[in-house]
Amino acid sequence: MWQEVLIIIIGLFTIGYVVLKVIKFFTKKDSSPCAGCSVGCALKDTKEALTENCEKQTKK
Amino acid sequence: MKLSELQTGEKGVIVKVMGRGVFRRRITEMGFIRGKEVQVIQNAPLKDPIQYRIMGYDVSLRRNDAQLIEVVTSAEEMKYFSDSIHSSNQEITFPTDELRSIALDKGKTINVALIGNPNSGKTSLFNFASGAHEHVGNYSGVTVDAKEAVFKQDGYTFKIVDLPGTYSISCSSAEETYVRKYLNESLPDVVINVVDASNLERNLYLTCQLIDKDVPMVIALNMYDSLQKSGDLFDYQSLAKMIGIPIVPTNGRTSHGIKSLFSHVIKVYEETEPLVRHIHINYGEVLENGIRIVRDAIRANAQVSHNQSTRYLAIQLLERDCETENYILQRPSNEVILEVRDKNIAEIEGLLNTDCETAFADARYGFISGALRETYEPNKIKEISRTQIIDTVITHKLLGFPIFLLFMWIMFETTFRLGEYPMNWIESLVGLLSGFVEGHMSEGPFKDLLVDGIISGVGGVIVFLPNILILYAFISLMEDSGYMARAAFIMDKIMHKMGLHGKSFISLIMGFGCNVPAIMATRTIESRSSRMITMLVNPLMSCSARLPVYLLLAGAFFPDHAGSILFLLYGTGILLAVILARLFKRFLFNKEDVPFVMELPPYRIPTGRSVVVHMWDKARQYLRKMGGVILVASIIIWFLGYFPRHTEQGQIYEDQIAQVEQSQWPNEEKEQQIEEINRLQTIDHQEKSYIGQIGKTIEPVMRPLGFDWKISISLLTGMAAKEVVVSTLSVLYTGDDSDEINLAGKLKESKDEKGNPSFTPLIALSLMFFVLIYFPCVATVTAIVKESGSWKWGAFVVAYSCLLAWLVSFAIYQVGSLFV
To answer: In Å, how far is A16's CA from the nearest CA of chain B?
Structure first.
């Protein structure tokens, strides 16, 4: 029984994750070409850090 | 916060004063120095100028000038700390002393920009200084965007920015425009001009322009050890005194001199460096006369920011610099300035009998030549350099190409052969883990998910990590040694034939790693048509994500020729790129290309650190993929393949098994019968599952290529990331009752309901070519859309790649079927 319950939780979690990723892909206005990358690499990290820093500066 | 942003009555403490020359001197003499309190008294009716009180007396500054002074206020500091102290609406006011200490502390943050020629070693310096792991290569154009890092030394915080390599700061290319815009808008406190000691004359050209621009600067004389080894003598200290800029020898490979370099940066920033003085490069009587007249016209007519050197603006105007012209056009009385400029250009060109741009370039090289004559002594008995000797063979017109092909073949063969050993070890570990879970867990869907979904899916891909690392080690060796630039040189003729130039090849080669940064690297290509073509054909360069698919199928179906198959696939990718580029050039982008001079950097021995950093970055990225997209994809595939659970057909199979068990047949025959029923049941369940239904729907389109519904599904899921093709095959083929523990064995043994093998060498070949060509991953399409500025080109790449993949695989399978 516990296995069925765990499976349902994992299933719901996975659906939520995918839906979130899809929404983020279509709604996030990002000038970075890596914005749509579901995988990520060092380049994406740098770009995201720069964007975050830029946003912080703008807010300030 | 800038001083100009303070409201009337508000107080702030000065953090730093930016700007240059007379303005900076005047403003500091007036008391605008770090740590001093300043208050806004009032704004003029049109909000300009603003009256300030500093050190007990009132001064007025123009808003533009006040923008060059950075201050810190109580409100700003409170906002800064509010996250950590979670304060309510209670107002906190920092006492002036405390604010002053904050300002002094903030003033110890130095913004540094790394500027230099391409391949002068900026990124290596950046990495050593900051401990970052940015991609470094021994060819130009590696940095296509500014990279930022923060580190501390001697109580100062350095915010360093690695800018793209550029030969000058005119506006003739994207990099030059980018660097100039950065210098103008971000106003770095100190610029580190990275100069390649082995090519002083060309590198110092950019230095001359920076001197004209009057930016606070320190020169990093990079690769000074190479210069010393060559026997040349360079009295850099004398040159430093001559040009009024500190010069520090550095070595980007060993980090030698980097600490000293940043100590000098501190001194320049704090204005305690005794060497520093601003010099004017003497352009000769004719040009100097023109500069003086245009400069005076600018001073008299245009309200230019104090941050801009009027002499520099005059030089730029005389050089017909488009951006400076646009800048002047936005100023009042611009017609007068441009009229004076045009008159002087005509006069200079008449007197010197050459165009103004050439006259300035000649004068700069004259200045460099003069400076070097006094400080630089080349080795008189210069031997033929190691680079020249190697190049006689490597770039030989007949030998160059076979050597390149041989090197590529060795790379793929080693990737497969050497990688096979650790691959087998990881495979055994995955098998052990799977067996352990299977043996120690009670039956149920979660156990099935773990064994058939997660361990199979993720384990099926993770085994290829060693191969990918070996391939990356080779690519890293090629880049760092300087061979990559030679490869571009060798390919230059072919590139020209396909309508591109050698610079495109670098971007294409980068595509072997990942297509996304490769597409971004096309920014260094000046011509839009070349850039677009390079971008559109880049997905045909087989990225490392496709490698697991090739390794799996080539290893399973062509074990004796796996390396050659890899070579064939990568070669086909390049060949198709050549053909398509030619077609795109003919039909879509038929503009003439801009001329381009390809440089060949000297050979360097790659450092172990650089190779290890490349490999480590790749391993990290690969492992992160395992825990992200591949894990999620494996779970989804398993869910879609596992449900719906109970079908009418399932009951029939169970009845059949019960009948066989009750029959009077010998035990051996019973077991065979039950095994066959189980196999058919598994096939039937998979076909009736959700994923089976999707697969069956798309199967008719893929059948002519030899692909069954499982392969078709794996291609569909592979659109997210190409490794998912392997994890999908792992999950879908785990259900088969096979004794084989590894995926390759399962694929070889897999049969359809009629007992025909699902995979043959021909199908495997067709599949590998399809994976090579079809749909670039979502990230690559997005990169193309962003870089080209239009969805049209993203859609175009998706459409042409899928169509081409289908046609190539169709041809391979149908023609191959005639012979096999």
So the answer is: 11
**What pTM, to 2 d.p., does this model score?**
0.62
For residue B517, give the chain A residue with the closest CA.
Answer: A43
Question: How far is it, in rounded angstroms, from Cα B563 to Cα B576?
Answer: 20
How far separated are the first and last CA of chain B, in Å rounded? 75
Q: Which residues of B touch A36 (CB under 8 A)?
A: 778-779, 781-783
The tokens of B347 are what?
């006069």
% of chain B surpassing 70 pLDDT: 87
Question: Chain A contact for B546, CB < 8 A?
Answer: no
Q: Which of residues 149-188 of B touch A (CB under 8 A)?
A: none
* Whether residue B380 has pLDDT greater than 70: no
**Average pLDDT score, chain B:** 83
ipTM above 0.85, yes or no: no
How near does any CA of chain B get to the CA of A5, in Å? 9
Helices (H), B254-333: 258-269, 285-301, 310-318, 322-329
The per-residue pLDDT for A31 is 54
| Mutation to test the B interface, candidates A41, A53, A54, most B Cβ within 10 Å | A41
Q: Which one has a higher pLDDT value, B537 or B482?
A: B537
Measured in residues, chain B has a length of: 820
**What is the C-alpha to C-alpha distance for residues B93 and B172, in angstroms, rounded to an integer?**
51
DSSP of B655-678: HHHHHHHHS-S-HHHHHHHHHHHH
Contacts of B632 in chain A (CB under 8 A): 14, 17-18
Tokens for B125, please give them: 């310096």
DSSP three-state, residue B190: strand
Q: Which DSSP symbol is given to B628?
A: I
User: How far is Cα B18 from Cα B308, in angstroms, rounded to an integer?
Assistant: 12
How many residues does this entry show for chain A?
60
- CB B76 to CB A39 under 8 A? no
Asked whether the beta carbons of B215 and B20 are under 8 A apart, the reply is yes
Instruction: Give per-residue pLDDT as tens, B693-702.
Output: 999 999 999 9
Mean local confidence (pLDDT), B766-770: 96
Q: What angle do CA B244, B246, B251 make, to 5 degrees?
A: 145
A29 interaction partners in chain B (CB closer than 8 Å): none
Q: What is the pLDDT of residue B242?
A: 86
Q: Within its chain, how far is the Cα of B446 from the centroid?
A: 41
pLDDT of B77 higher than 70? no
The mean pLDDT of B566-581, rounded to a whole number, is 90
Cα separation values, B129 from A44, B245, B246, B261, B409, Å = 21, 21, 18, 10, 37
For position B623, what pLDDT does the model report? 86
B629 interaction partners in chain A (CB closer than 8 Å): 38-39
